[in-house]
UniProtKB/TrEMBL annotation:
InterPro entries: ADH-like_C, ADH-like_N, ER, GroES-like_sf, NAD(P)-bd_dom_sf, Quinone_OxRdtase_PIG3. The keyword Oxidoreductase applies. This is NAD(P)H-quinone oxidoreductase. It comes from Fuscibacter oryzae. Residues 16-326 form the Enoyl reductase (ER) domain. Transmembrane segments: none annotated.
Length: 329
């Protein structure tokens, strides 16, 4: 089909606060080998978008400089070598960047069919969080049924996803959040115990339960030594972000004596092949959870694409429970 030469997109005019997000008219991307172009209906808003906006998370050299890592819509163009998708297919996808726009390009193996029973709005909330959670708590963290799992930021997009996936896998789930209401919300979607970190000590609570076999953390900073104390012997800590800083003093004697594992990852810089493996695992294991109703998409709020700054202010207020989406069409 014939596409327009230009499209509406949101650019980062300069590093800074949410108001640096500006609507612009830019060229529609052209698909490379193995790539598809998706006409987006909705795009998900994620913490890495805010870090990129602030100048703290540069996109890979080959990626669009526009923000936006996930979305859902319709395939409108395919590049050479594409075999899975055809024009008109409805997909949700992980993008290397550029999803705050009417059109975006991604590798065909990073797009997945819309899960059974979901709208495009709901499906747009899945790729970034599901790829991140599954790759870190299962592929990297090795979470198993019956294990005790702690996730920080339980009402974030990552947190609500991790609680539900871990619960569906048969783990005992603990989650921290910043208010009694948010702690209760964590319990409402599958956490055995929501912990209000402002008034309660997550280390003491988790240790009383036997210690965490796996912790998923995006806070960093002073949480790192506290996480080590909260782990059970032979426990694993997976670090996926550092909202309170990447540097801290840590006594590795405890790590050695109790045979602890500290690891971590970031999704965006990984190779197309690595992301394809994650996509295949998500489709094989998480999509059936969605179809069965054991995993539900939690949406906090929706904003028009041009109101991307308001969406970022909402995310940075930390008042949200679940995902924030941008309506593109």
């Amino acid at each position: 089909m014939q596409l327009s030469d230009s499209m509406l997109a949101i650019e980062i005019s300069e590093p800074g606060a949410p108001d640096v997000l500006k609507p612009v008219s830019v060229a529609v991307p052209v698909p490379g080998h193995g790539q598809i172009i998706v006409r987006l209906a909705y795009a998900g808003v994620n913490r890495p978008d805010a870090l990129q906006r602030a100048g703290l998370y540069a996109p890979p050299p080959s990626a669009s400089p526009l923000p936006g890592l996930e979305g859902a819509g319709t395939v409108v163009e395919t590049g050479p070598g594409v075999t899975r998708w055809k024009i008109g297919d409805k997909v949700c996808a992980l993008f290397p960047g550029g999803a705050y726009a009417e059109y975006a390009a991604c590798h065909e193996s990073h797009a997945l069919p819309i899960p059974q029973g979901l709208s495009l709005r709901e499906a747009a909330c899945l790729p970034e969080t599901c790829f991140t959670v599954w790759s870190n708590i299962v592929m990297r963290g090795g979470l198993k049924a019956g294990e005790r799992f702690l996730v920080h930021g339980g009402t974030s997009g990552i947190g609500t996803t991790a609680i539900q996936i871990a619960r569906a896998l048969g783990a005992r789930v603990f989650a921290t959040a910043g208010s009694p209401e948010k702690a209760k919300a964590c319990e409402g979607i599958g956490a055995e115990r929501g912990i209000n970190y402002r008034d309660e000590d997550f280390v003491a609570i988790v240790k009383e339960a036997g210690g965490a076999d796996l912790i998923l953390d995006m806070v960093g900073g002073p949480y790192l030594p506290r996480n080590v104390k909260a782990l059970a012997d032979d426990g694993r800590l997976v670090q996926i972000a550092f909202l309170q800083g990447p540097k801290v003093e840590l006594n590795f004697g405890e790590v050695m004596m109790r045979r602890l594992t500290i690891t971590g990852s970031t999704l965006r810089p990984q190779s197309d092949q690595a992301k394809a493996r994650i996509a295949a695992a998500v489709e094989a294991y998480v999509w059936p959870m969605v179809a069965s109703g054991s995993f539900k998409v939690i949406i906090d709020s929706e904003f028009p694409l041009k109101d991307a700054p308001a969406a970022h202010w909402r995310m940075e207020s930390s008042g949200h429970i679940g995902k924030i989406v941008l309506k593109v069409e």
